[in-house]
Amino acid sequence: MMKNVLFAVVLASLALAVGCAKGGNGEGDGISVTVATTPAGLSEAGVTLSFPVTATVTGTTNTAVTWSLSGASCSGSGNPCGTLSATTGATVTYQAPSTVPANPAVVIKALSQADNLTSGVAGLTIVDITTTVAPTPVNVGQGLVQQFTAVAVPDNAPQTFSWSCSASGAACANFTSNSSGVAVYTAQDAACGNGCVIISAASTIDPNGCTNDAKACTSAKASVVATRITGSYAFHFSGFDTSNHRVAVAGAIAVTNGVISGVEDELTASGPAQYAITGGSYIPSTLNDHNSNNAGTLKLTTGAYPNQFQIVLDAEGDIQMIESDGHGTGSGEMKKSAASQFNTAAQTFVFGMTGVDANAKRIGYVGLLPLDGSGNVKTGAMFDSNDNGAASTSNAGGMYQVSASNSSIWQLTLTSAVTQHFDFYIGPGQTKNAKNPLTLYVISTDPVDSTHPALAGTIVFQDTGTTYDKTALNSDSISHLTGVDSTGSNAVVSLLAGTGDGAGNFDESFDSNNAGSIVPAATTQAPCTYTTSTGGRYVVTLFGTGTNTCTGGLPFVLYASGANRGFLLDQSSAAVMTGAMDPQTGNGAFSPAGLASTYAVATGSSATSAVVPVAANLLLTSTGIGMYNVAGTQYVGGTSLQTQTVAGAYTVMFSGTGTITLTTPAASYVIYAVDQEHFEMIDVDKAVTNPSVMFAEQ
After folding, report:
1. In this structure, are 453 and 478 located in the same domain?
2. Does some domain include residue 588?
3. Closest to 9 measured CA to CA, from 589, 666, 527, 409
């Protein structure tokens, strides 16, 4: 699903060659010439495109320049390097050639007429106009509707397209588009797999199109399926009931020909309980919003609540969900189970859990869980906890086994100063793919008392290819954190972009919403530090505010599941900030056009009962140079589910940080991109005193 072509082009576009030669005859001393393109920073010249180039002369009253164009292929006939609209003037227009020359490198030069030794230059590379269509690959349920977006690069190419759609080699039965970057496919073709539907978009100024120049188009591939919800899933959910008591659920379902069965563990104010899932249904959205393939209602027959969810799906079929039965609020996720990956041999995991103690105060756990493959927790198991500001570290032992009553349930016993019991369910992922680690959903099964808190969270496979010393924090990462304010009744959320140097230093910038108090990303930030111990346990200072030293920071413990990835827990504050760090792919190479696609978006774990859960299908489009729009539908949870149309704009910088500003309904978010298909966002409206982290998946 990565837009590799777009990444490469954006990366190349970072290099704008601006120069000034030395003045050598006395008259040129202090004179400088800079050359800039419009848009700024453009170093890719798409064939047939034109754009302004401006020279700025300082250090003399004579600001006139003489323009020239040079390159290894420029000497041929027919202007193979393109043309300039004039040889003099502060601004000229560069016109790219109709085809890429043998040597695509071109230099535009502005020579000072006050001093013929001083000049400025802009380096360009002439490239074909290429297109990318997203999302891909994606399953589309028969009769359902899926939107696709197209983007043309380089960045100054017009975002207008000629679309095509074929299903098993024939024209699609129902496909609509116009010259914009959005098309709509309705799956009225026969069921087919392996990407049998090909959706392409060629730039309207590309005479070759996709058929004659396939390398210019990256097409989307789709399969037509009977239903998007089928097979074996694991899920977890957390929220609050109508009395504002914490609720947590973990479980597994199997869906066969639309028939749902399964089991779940539930933690409520009444204590732990286990329920059979004896039925249920999935009904796709009936809204005419071109996203019926990506949204619907999931009901689970359990005899308890929560049992109905509004869900949104990404291209891979992963499900994000919020409660929609009117009996509480909360959110969770459901993903395909990879049961065959678990317990094949000795395996080491790390975990993060959040919940409440016997006094309903916030508590968090993070730790290391080495399993021997034969039912035993190995020596070296340990965990850190923070119970309302009281932090501790413990070694642990224990055992695990599959339940005798249901093979979907695994039972875990951890022994330290206190013996604790948990059930877990095998979720998605692999043990041989560091980018997609095996994940388990865990929930405590002890009655809550002074030594047994109510906990739920995730357990993630620890990558065996990473050395867990200082070198494991060696690149860019995005962290999300959630906690409570000093009153305990309002939420605190943060997104943090960090870079470890592999030697104990950690640069960071962050955005926070502290119960309505907004802290924007710092423009300069001195390195904080991190230290290591055994098993991938780190102590790292986050939220430092110093510019020369890392002052005012908060110490966190990190249990790493891979390079630049793991679970985070603050070590001292009553905020009990919990969350995770994920490696960022593409820092320095993001662009607004690169995020154009459909996204499933939903709130993560709610820190307080006042958090309003939201699920949404967002459509991000690039409609022209500097124009990036947000549309779609969002579902707002509560005593009754609300459905709202979304409209607004977005942008993102090369680093992956950006904003989403909605006009309908009015809202402001900051976004941090993890990679080309995932970003995280938090609300930065001051009126929102109970924000949450929201996760977007393409």
Report:
1. no
2. no
3. 589
490 and 565 co-located in one domain: yes
Q: Which CATH number fits the domain that encloses residue 66?
A: 2.60.40.10
Residue 16 has pLDDT above 50, yes or no: no
Tell the burial category of 78 from Cβ atoms under 10 Å away from its Cβ (0-12, 13-18, 19+): exposed
- State residue 525's pLDDT score: 61
Pairing of β 44-46 and β 119-127 = parallel
Q: What is the mean pLDDT of the chain?
A: 91
310 and 255 part of one domain: yes
Phi first, then psi, for residue 544 (nearest 5°) are: -65, 145
Q: What is the pLDDT confidence band of residue 116, given thresholds at 50, 70 and 90?
A: confident
Is residue 203 domain-shared with residue 246, that is, in the same domain?
no
Domain that holds residue 559: 470-583
Whether the predicted pLDDT of 77 surpasses 80 = no
3-state secondary structure 204-270: CCCCCHHHHCHHHEECEEEEEECCCCCEEEEEEEEEEECCCCEEEEEEEEEEECCEEEEEEEEEECC
Contact 152, 158 (CB under 8 A): yes
Give the domain-ending residue among 85, 109, 127.
Answer: 127
Sequence-separated (6 or more) residues with CB below 8 Å from residue 390: none
- What Å distances lie between residue 61 and 106, 111, 123, 514, CA to CA? 29, 15, 27, 53
- 3-state class (DSSP) for residue 558: strand
CA distance 674 to 587: 9
> Strand 44-46 and strand 308-313: pairing?
unpaired
Is 120 contained in some domain? yes
DSSP annotation of 21 reads: P
Q: Which of 409, 426, 461 is the last residue of a domain?
A: 461
Q: Which residue has the higher pLDDT, 143 or 11?
A: 143
Q: CATH number, domain at 450?
A: 2.40.128
pTM score, whole prediction: 0.91
pLDDT given for residue 548 in this prediction: 65
- Cα(501)–Cα(472) distance, rounded to whole angstroms? 9
